[in-house]
Amino acid sequence: MKIKIIKLSFILLIIFAGCSKNLLDENTPSLITANQVFKNLAGFEAALNGLYSSWRAVRDVDYAEGIGVNGEGGFVGTDLIQGPGSNASNFTIVTESFGAALNPSVPYLWGTFNWLYQIVNASNTIINRAQNPSVDWTGNGLAADDNKNRVIGEAKAIRAWAYRFLTYAWGDVPLNLNESNGSNIRSDWERTPVGQVRAQMRSDLLFAEQYVTTEPSKQGRISKGAIQTFLAELYLTLNKPDSALIYANKVVNEPAYQLITARYGVKKSLPGVPFMDMFYDGNSNREEGNTEALWVMQNAKGLTGGTTGNWMRRNIQSRYDVFIIGGVTPLKITLDRGGRARSRWGITKFLVDLYEPTDDRGSNYAIRKYFILSNAATNNAGITGGDLPGADDLPPGMNYGDTIWCRWSANWINPDNSLVRYRFPYSRKYDYADPMEVQVSCQYNCQVYLRAADAYLLKAEAQFKLGDSPGAAATINIIRARAHATPITAAQVNIDFILDERARELVYEEDRRFTLLRTHKFVERTQLYNPNGGQFVTQRDTIFPIPQSVINANLTKPMAQNPGY
Amino acid sequence: MILISFATAPFISLLAQQQTREITGAVTDSKGQPIVGASVTIPGTTTGTNTDANGKFRLSVSANATTLTITFIGMKQQSVAIAGKTTLSVSMEDEAVGLGEVVVVGYGTQKKSDITGTVASLPQDKLQKIAVSDVPQILQGAVPGVFINQNNGGANPSDQSIMIRGRNSITASTNPLIVVDGVPFSGSLTDINPNDIKSIEVLKDASSAAIYGSRGSNGVILITTKGGEEGKTLIAYDGFYSVQNYTNVPKLMNGEQFYQAKKQYENGTSLITPSEIAVYNAKSWVDYYKLCIRQGASQNHNLSASGGTKNMSYFISGNLINTKGLTINDNYKRISTRINVEGKVTPWLTLGTRNTLAYIDQSGGKPTFAEAFWMNPLTTPYNPDGTIAVYPWPEDHVYNGPLTPLLYDDSDHNYQVVTNNYINVNLPFIKGLQYKFNTGYRFDYYNHYQYQGVNTVYGIGAQGNMFGDRNMAYSLTAENILSYDREFGKHHIFLTGLYSMEEASTNNFHIDAYGFPNDILTYYGVAQAKYKFPSLSYTKSDLISEMFRANYSYADRYLLTFTVRKDGFSAFGANKKYGTFPSIALGWNVAEESFFPIKNIFNTLKLRASWGENGNQAIAPYTTISRLTPLDYLAGTTNLSGYFPATLGEANLGWETTASTNIGLDFGILKDRITGDVNLYDANTSGLLLARSISPVSGFSTITQNIGKTNNKGLEISVNSKNINISGFTWTTEGNISFVKNKIVALYGFKDANGKLTDDISNHWFIGQPIRVNYDFVFDGVWQTGETPYPGYQAGYAKLKDLNGDGQIKPIDDQKIIGQQDPKYTWGLTNAFSFKGFTVSVFFYGVQGVTKTNLFRLDNLGKDVRVNDVVKDWWTPTNPSNTMPALSFESTRIPYSYQVYEDASFTRLKDLTLSYDLPLKWLERIKMKRLRVYFSGRNLMTFTKYGGMDPEVSPGVYYTGISSLNTTPLQKEFTFGLNIGL
């Protein structure tokens, strides 16, 4: 018996010994750590992809943070775009009344602030880790240094883009240039003077401009032209129109960047205007013939990384499918009408009236002003899945082929009858419907984020500021000619005209709020042209309150709030 | 062992005056061993005697006596019919009350009288007599200091949170460690069949929980399953059938009220669509609750067989639970079996195995309470052909039909295997030395597939949509336990040593797919789907532990326990893998002392004191490592895989440590007629595993660090009393109450200009305040016409209190703490009345000092009133309501949103049971050991001031932009049950 016990004890001893102490070392086969990523060019490219993917949230609904579209702060509550429409997000509601409604607790503010600093940190990580001498930069058949500098350049360009948003929105913001880790957590951030932040942006953009190529390193990434456009804008902000002119000219004079002046692409054979071709699904990329594009946001259905939830059309379009005429809701949601609308934001009557009749940019292809009542065959055309919309419901006395006009004889005033609101004209730059799912909220088309026309208009602004009104008029006329608008004379050029032209050309593309802030016209023009909140705008509103959560988290050093909040 | 003696001498003279007869008998325990000193009495008289050293008795009784009552400490009272009998043989059953009992304490057992820590045993009654299917419901209100909250109603009972002795951690888990048959249990408490449980012990203080070291700080629940007993085979059936209804269904607006609300919205400017007008005119509106809710029904059947021979014992059981929940298709079915076998292979070697197989089926798409809540009543749930409408509201496809989940093809299955095998070796060369090798393995396989066809809202657009989840998890335990238990005269030494290893791992495969060619194959057609998004994930953690415990007692009076445990856990930082947790405890059985003056009152009086340190390791693996998350981009239609910083790691992360002191008192009064205990404790937790907020300027909003301190002070009292025991009528009361005061002592150590520690306002953590508080603006009515509102407000908007009196509303300035979210005290009270086999038992449960938000005091009806809500007294210029602001999108959220808080204290009649035990003489005739029938009702009445849905469940949240309470109320339940023993 004793022998048995000894045998048993021996077996158990082996089991004991099996419990080795390196059991406690963690392996992370299914997780990614920075050390695994930042080893070679492929890893850095992947980090850049992550950065671009996050940037895409500028037009996303991003419910991860429980907030609405991150980019709306650049659009809504300006002379061109008003809110709220229907069930608007928290920032759009704020723009209805400003005043006490714009306060440090508005969720949109902290959501956007957090997101932008996530981009800053991700860029910092790439920029700082690229300095590690052991990184293997070989690849693409290029010299190691070319790869390295281009990667750093793209990361610096995106960092500058994030600080552009941060400085326009909040003024002085903490300048963070380090990769965050567990040991450098700070609770004593200070707000860096905006001039210093912009100096860093300039330095980042100048570096990027050297190494980022005219054609983006990959489809959907930033191009040299986009960086030059941001430089031109930055120099205008810094009141250096001469430098702005240099960089705007670099874009304007680059043969690879050509304005679209003729019909092309997917809808070439259908009625339309050249200006709108850039906005159709299948046409937006440089690879698809859009020579004007400088930076194109990539989206696709059904692919990992295909979208993070782009809802631009949903926000912008009026809810044409619910307005009532003669007791019926006539219009169905169709592919041709560009999918399902939500009326979250709306353009102002001021914008609708800015276009002369010949201007392509104000035609029904660009700004929806009427609908044609259609039969089932027309409405069902092109739809490959889901419920077919079928024929429109005819209001009493109307027939298929008849026109239903939108109404804009007066601006809608909130609170207003929703029926008036839903029948107001809207921009069609983001029309998109999925043939498989015509009612879907999300959209999956690539979208132009920045195009050469912006550089032309920045050039005109620089020329005007330098006293060259004839030059400015000539530059503006290039843009106007493409849209079949009447040429202007040097005498007509002033800052308001330039802003009007930017409105006609770039509504829902440029961050209108930032443009108005740059030209010191935000308060004046928003008060004048936006009757749904503009009347409450004051000088205080040119800068957002620092989010309360940011102030609260800065535990060891009080962070100053912006004046008036 | 305590003996009760009856002074028999005074009775003799009385007896002589009556006509008497003599009865003899033998009293044995369940193993057939004689019981010495049991008291044998004739109820309602003073006639009685005690059993002798052989368990025998002889008693003269009056000729007309019919019943004999036998009582003995630690055993259930027995009543035996004596009419026409002269000899009796009585077998007594164990009763888990009293200090003579043996209690499981982790890595061994101890006599209750020897225990120095605070160990609460669940009264066996609760286990045997309450007709519920899960352990948490049994524990709720039964053990002081154990707070169980049912977070959500529904057929699956598992959405519960358990907290022992208050909240120590600010952000780490407060779940106690669950140990089943010695093996830490990674599943849910609801996975355990209550019928298989022999005993439940709760280790509450540092000393008793310290043997579980790094995981002891939230307390430990020890569950022991049944084994067989040598002797006769016992076959038992326990089953019940119950029907259920909701305790409280919110009274939603009907079509008429909804229509009027739309009219009222923002001064009558909202859009009413033609289809809504049509439904309104036809008065054909529906109550979506009625469509989604049914009467629930549940059945629970349990069959078991147990028994044993001299060298082998077994317990085998099978259990079926089938619950049809209150929401249509909310079904929960569980089948489980248990096989426990122990064999004595040689006199020194025992082998044992304890195994469970379980299968849980929750298949079926179910309408959610939330969707039924929010659906516009002016819509049409069915198509003209009777099928379920995908879009009940043709003009507004955002709101899909709440009934469409019924059309899903949903397969939701869970399979669990638990096997626990052990070897006991009584080492023969040293007396009292025992070695145990204990292993546990639990495997959990979860498979959930759902297909949404083109007749459903998610399927129609996606052309068939599916997701699939396949999760495999295992946990593995291997323990070597060496113990030495021996008495030397009056000295008793009990030493335990442990070396153990545990491992837990999960492996998950998930797939999303859409774009199916047709609905024929449902999810099995995934290969043909156009778009597929698979993902795979994996985690693993390891724990290596050593533990030593020494128990020493002298003359059963002076008790000492010392323990120390060292744990190494893989999820902690490289330099903080190991933690050591010591504890010490003293006990003194005062009533055993010869000088103790009031032995006639106190038969038991024990004082206990303990101090110790416990840990909390409740963090996920890989928390210490900075990580990136996949975040992909595209070039055209080419995927570009990308990574983005996601988690900030802290390489120095280690244990959260709780040092606590406990002073306790156990008592038994008047021969254990009143028993109970009182405990006072003070627990200080430091180095919290705190997911603290950091400035978003870093690119992150939180990091988990060992930072901060909390304190819990508490008082727990439990009393069990046999109030009346006359003429076969008994009245017993079991009551307990526990108070806990919890506060944050320190956070990050930052001080303000006055040297005062600073709060973390963004997380609502305040020094000196309870961990979970409500911090908000104070709702103070509605701005009325004619009043001058603060800037940003207008008539009809919510009026928030201007706390600092500066004439405007601002965060912090006008925000304050509004009550705490964890209760200040909880109590449970059970009264049982028995007479001639009939028992009525009434259990009340109370939770006091909780403040919760009441979502019915807010609005979230969407622009144009697109979603439903309860009827409210909305403000209008002509209805100057002061409780509910005007119906508009802004009135309750501009400029600042707020919540309305209410006292959510409640008292609930949790359980009312009427049972009848058939008398022994009838049972003998039908050759049964036991037959009990009962009716019971649960959650029958609730007393509360809370105006929200249910004070016990979570108050819920409103979904962003959509009005919906995401919680389901509890159910009211009526049960009929049967217990049969053969």
Number of helices of chain A: 21
Backbone structural class of chain A: mainly alpha
Task: Give Rg of chain A in angstroms.
Answer: 27 Å
Name the overall outline of chain A: globular
Helix content of chain B: under 10%
Oligomeric status of the shown chains? heterodimer
Average residue pLDDT of chain B? 87
Cross-sheet strand order for the largest sheet of chain A: 1-3
Low-confidence regions of chain B: 1-18
Structural class, from secondary structure content of chain B? Answer: mainly beta
Largest interface: A-B, 118 and 114 residues
How far is the first residue's CA from the last residue's CA of chain B? 32 Å
Radius of gyration of chain B: 32 Å
% residues in beta strands of chain B: over 45%
Q: Tell me about the biggest sheet of chain A? A: 2 strands, antiparallel
Write down the overall geometry of chain B: globular
Q: In which range does the helix fraction of chain A lie?
A: 25-40%
Please give the structural blueprint.
The complex is a heterodimer of chains A (565) and B (982).
Chain A: H1 2-18, H2 34-37, H3 41-55, H4 72-75, E1 81-82, H5 90-97, H6 107-129, H7 144-170, H8 194-211, H9 224-237, H10 241-252, H11 274-277, E2 293-297, H12 312-316, E3 346-347, H13 349-352, E4 367-368, E5 370-372, H14 376-380, E6 403-405, H15 418-421, E7 426-427, E8 447-451, H16 452-465, H17 469-482, H18 495-506, H19 512-518, H20 522-529, H21 548-553
Antiparallel strand pairs in A: 1-3, 2-8, 4-7, 5-6
Helix pairs in contact in A: 3-6, 3-7, 6-7, 7-8, 8-9, 9-10, 9-16, 10-16, 16-17, 16-18
Chain B: H1 11-16, E1 20-28, E2 39-41, E3 48-50, E4 56-62, E5 67-71, E6 78-81, E7 87-91, E8 102-104, E9 109-111, E10 119-121, H2 124-129, H3 135-139, E11 146-150, E12 160-164, E13 177-180, E14 183-184, E15 197-203, H4 206-209, E16 220-225, E17 231-246, H5 255-264, H6 274-282, H7 288-292, E18 296-308, E19 312-324, E20 331-346, E21 349-361, H8 369-374, E22 409-426, E23 433-452, H9 457-462, E24 465-488, E25 491-514, E26 531-554, E27 558-569, E28 578-589, E29 602-616, E30 627-630, E31 633-635, E32 638-640, E33 643-647, E34 656-669, E35 674-686, E36 689-693, E37 702-706, E38 709-726, E39 729-746, E40 773-777, E41 779-782, E42 798-800, E43 815-820, E44 825-835, E45 838-848, E46 851-853, E47 901-903, E48 906-917, H10 920-925, E49 930-944, E50 971-981
Parallel strand pairs in B: 1-7, 13-16
Antiparallel strand pairs in B: 1-4, 2-3, 2-5, 5-6, 8-9, 10-15, 11-12, 13-14, 15-16, 17-18, 17-50, 18-19, 19-20, 20-21, 21-22, 22-23, 23-24, 24-25, 25-26, 26-27, 27-28, 28-29, 29-34, 30-33, 31-32, 34-35, 35-38, 36-37, 38-39, 39-44, 40-43, 41-42, 44-45, 45-48, 46-47, 48-49, 49-50
